[in-house]
Amino acid sequence: MSLEDSLQEIRSLYKVNQATTPDTYLANPWLLVIVSNDSVAMAALNKPVSFQPVYNLLSDDVNRLSGLSAEEKGPFKAKLVLKQRDAILKGLVAYGCPKAITALFFLNEATPEDIRAHLPQTPLRPEKITLERTESGKSTFSTNYRSKAGLTHEIMYKIFPDLGMVVEKFLYPTLISYTEVTSPQETSLVMVTALFAEQVLPILKEHQQGAKANELTDEQLGLVYATVRCLAKAFGLDQRAFIDDVQKKYY
């Protein structure tokens, strides 16, 4: 199966063609798949050169939407690209900086210059980590790990204090809990997708529950796993290697 065939198969699951206006397109779960999932999965699966056909689909979708003037289509496309950027950046928690940097480079290459002109030229996240951001990070961490949040926090500091400090003071306050671009629900999809694609099963188990706390259903999570497996098949990877039933002891 080619990448193009895989993308069309995923689009059919989400009935993308039924989204005919900007509002219905934004509300369609396809947005979460193509923006939060496909980009993250491609980064995690180390196939970032595949961003061009994804951008082409997004561009074609926007061009056919009713209710958008010619002048509004460019900024709307830029909004989708910005969500892709933020999703990939958050996904680096699961698959690391090298893949994130490479994926963002190819996403930038796939984005036409006139669309890039609508994107922010300075960082969106504040440079200083305020008390508000710290508390937001703690809240997001608690959502993901629930009753195990305190124990997980303790374990991280015990096995390597610097790990606990980086997660508590930087990754969650600055990266994960920033939701001005990708919502808490989209962020959960980003993390579940990246962890599933990387098969980090112990952490995936916790983030699956965190996703449900953010009101994602088993059906939506199932589509995430189907998306990754579909892309893996297109990239010639063994789909059987991707385990989602992490309630069993695979680690």
UniProtKB/TrEMBL annotation:
Alphabetized SUPFAM superfamilies for the sequence: AhpD-like
Name of the protein this chain belongs to: Uncharacterized protein
